[in-house]
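Work Package 3 (structural annotation) set out to generate three-dimensional models for the target panel prioritized at the project kickoff. During this period the team completed the workflow that converts sequence records into discrete structure tokens, so that structures can be stored uniformly alongside our sequence database. As a representative example, we reproduce one entry of 366 residues exactly as it appears in the project archive.
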Amino acid sequence: MASASTNDIEFRSVTKSYGFVTAVTDINLNVPKGAFLALLGPSGCGKTTCLRMIGGFEQPSEGTVLIDGREMNGVPAYRRPVNMVFQHYALFPHFNVEQNVAYGLRQMRPRIAAGEINRRVGEALEMVRLGGFAKRRIHEMSGGQQQRVALARAIVNRPSVLLLDEPLAALDKKLRSAMQIELQTLQRELGITFVLVTHDQEEALSMADIVCVMSAGRIRQLGSPQEVYDRPADLFVADFVGKTNRVDATMEADGRTLRLGDGSALAASARQSVSPGQAIVAIRPEAIRLTRTPAADVASFQGTVTHRIFLGSSAEYAVTVPGLGDFLVTADRRDMNASELVEPGQTVFLGFNPAGAHVFSASSAA
């Protein structure tokens, strides 16, 4: 019977334990058909365990994993409508490109006719822009080309879901950026669900349309890249996704005034309301305006530049503010009062709109 599910992947209260160690705890997750999901988090957070449970390489200790509305508990990997691209590609070095891509098709039962296999292999290679490389040996291919061979081998079976286990980790930065665009294009052309595991925040934000941030075996936030970056659910997400300046503060009894370490006060908005007591103000580096004179329209703090990192169109500055600590500031050179870079040792002013900051209870820092 055809499934009426609108989700390709569902986790229903899934827990996975290895002896006394619990890798993931009570995961509930719905991935719509055709979505590009990134499982993002530090090493040991449970993201790869989730990927392996989708692929059938691990079984949940509790709960249910479904693909296209069908329960997958106990279903082996080779009987799932899923293919996987591994971090190190796992290509057969003694096969040429065409033989690598055709391998899965040749194992299918009932057997597929040779002409159909050749046609599908040709289509897959064209899709990953390797149409003229069918007879090339694997050792003759660059890292990026090998990655595309692995992709072709994964999509030639026409899976419902494609799993990507940090597939860009072995590539240099420039090639990795190019492959990010190619993967996005391929996902749109195929229209199938992609699930990417990565610890690289930039990779997750730039490629996926849904980001699942994980820590200690639990989901901390699930949302679009913009939601996760602009409206982090807690201090862990604010710290892990992108860069964040943390400023210790106290929410006063009125629930509307934040008192900073230097004695200055900021007005808190309703969105920033936390219980009275110790709090942490989180400010993105690009939300801080660096100027040579005090800003009149926003809160402004005087500090001294200690380090500068030149990034071309922008520069990153480490600035020490008495009573508040060290700040990282990203300054677009076009927005500076003058075009020259600020030198270490110079006095500057840091301005930011308090409404653009995030406020969390200090007790949530764990």
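The chain has eight helices and 20 strands.
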